[in-house]
Amino acid sequence: MTLVKQYGAMKTHRALKLQCKVQNYDWGLKGNQSEVGRLYAIQSEALLDEDTPYAELWIGTHESGPCSVLNFRDLDQDLCDDYADEGLRCIDSMSLKEWLSKNPYVLGDKVLQRWGAELPFLFKVLSVAKALSIQAHPDKKLAKQLHQHQPNIYKDANHKPEMALALSSFEALCGFVSYQELKQVLEDVPELHSLLGESVAKALMNIALCTFNKEVAKILLRASFTAIMSATEDEVKVTLSRIILRLLDEQQKRVLNKKEQLVLRLAEQYPGDVGVLSTFFLNYVCLLPGEALYLDANEPHAYIAGECVECMATSDNVVRAGLTEKYRDTKTLCAMLSYNQGPPKVLSGVPINPYTKRYSPPFEEFEVDASIVPDGHSLSLLPSPGPSVLLVFKGKGNMNQVFGNTKFCTEIKRGDIFFIPAGIRLDIVCNTRGDEEMDFLHLYKAGVNSNVFT
């Protein structure tokens, strides 16, 4: 007898409450200052350590931080019976990945055929106190090569396009500045010339006036960025100290611009780090709550400060070259980048009902719906042909799960996280019961990009 038998889809076509993993990276906000920490404390009923950083809450099936299904016994009594028949004890919870492998039909046919029996996306909450590394994510071809040659560092063979949706004011570096901005940087920061070489610096300063082939311009930008990132430690420290001393002096005479202020902040967080110099080459973006930034493969970026929800393809592949104590792969990073220039596209969300905005980046694996429902009002989230996860970020209410002729009613509250099988409609009512501090229900739902199904 097999450990798994195919029993009625009705039995398992209902939301699964999840327990999710937290990552304590040193750049995270500490203790109760961290939204990640506060959500994790609600989930785990654990006291937070005020000296511990709570950086990321992972919601998905990636092996570095897999979720567990909490109401496993209630949903899978038939499966528990199978365990008993085999002389095994039915555990109180199992990983979401294992549960999906035993119930793959809940993913929907198209998702199952394309990505197999696991979630193609990874959803996170991030609480950022200080800058993350200067980094990029490989495309599928490079990810496969990196995983094959260094599996201890690059832990999977998947690409990692991603999107950050701001919960608070959120700062990031993303993509290369325009030629015009780079020309201005080299005029304003003459200390960089020594690392670039005068001939390259002069060519960069003149590039904005040229009309030659963009591919030639990319080659010049690549050579320049590589020269900066590959400079020796002593060269970097000397150049940085000169820049910092000049900026501190000029700060007494004028208001520094935002990029200059950022350079001083990063130099305090990561003294003598080449990543501080790379700041001059990258766009500095400040998102407002409700704005989102998406990043394709091979685009340089670094999150600086703030809190967000983040969604990506299921991967943890990161190629780093600055602002980090972790492994740096400068040669790979400089070789893999696309060297596209200009400001990144910021998404504000598209309304799909009176209370919900959808953020759909140009990636198949994911999109995110953000809903804010006033007290006493209701929201209907239509069924999707693919799976999704739901985070109750604030407030409380009731959630009716409708599948065919069946309906399950669940009370929901801040900190609850659910896996939602394909084909389920969610009818949600905000019921704050006169709570003066929270008169709305705030939800985030991440799922496969709807364009996949059309």
Secondary-structure topology with pairs:
Blueprint: H1 9-12, E1 16-19, E2 21-23, H2 35-44, E3 56-59, E4 68-69, H3 72-75, H4 77-85, E5 94-95, H5 96-102, H6 109-115, E6 121-128, E7 134-136, H7 140-149, E8 162-166, E9 170-176, H8 179-188, H9 193-196, H10 198-207, H11 214-229, H12 233-250, H13 258-269, H14 274-278, E10 282-287, E11 292-295, E12 301-313, E13 319-322, H15 330-336, E14 346-347, E15 350-353, E16 356-359, E17 367-374, E18 378-381, E19 388-394, E20 396-403, E21 406-413, E22 417-420, E23 425-430, E24 440-447
Antiparallel strand pairs: 1-4, 1-22, 2-3, 3-6, 4-5, 6-12, 7-13, 8-11, 8-12, 9-10, 9-12, 11-14, 15-16, 16-17, 17-24, 18-23, 19-22, 19-24, 20-21, 20-23
Helix pairs in contact: 8-10, 10-11, 11-15
Number of helical stretches of at least 4 residues: 15
Residue share in β-strands: 25-35%
Strand ordering within the main sheet: 5-4-1-22-19-24-17-16-15
Number of strands: 24
What does the average pLDDT come to? 90
Describe the structure.
The chain is of the alpha+beta class and 454 residues long. The chain has 3 domains: 9-170, Sandwich (Jelly Rolls), CATH 2.60.120; 177-283 and 316-347, Orthogonal Bundle (Phosphomannose Isomerase, domain 2); 358-453, Sandwich (Jelly Rolls), CATH 2.60.120.10. Helices cover 29% and strands 28% of the residues. It is built from 15 helices and 24 strands. The strands form 4 sheets. It has a 9-stranded antiparallel β-sheet with strand order 5-4-1-22-19-24-17-16-15. Strands 2, 3, 6, 8, 9, 10, 11, 12 and 14 form a 9-stranded antiparallel β-sheet that branches. Helix 8 (179-188) packs across helix 10. The longest helix is centred in the middle third of the chain and has 18 residues, at 233-250. The radius of gyration is 24 Å and the shape is globular. The model is unreliable at 1-10 and 82-90 (pLDDT under 50). Its cofactor is Zn(2+). This is mannose-6-phosphate isomerase. One of its GO terms (cellular component) is cytosol.
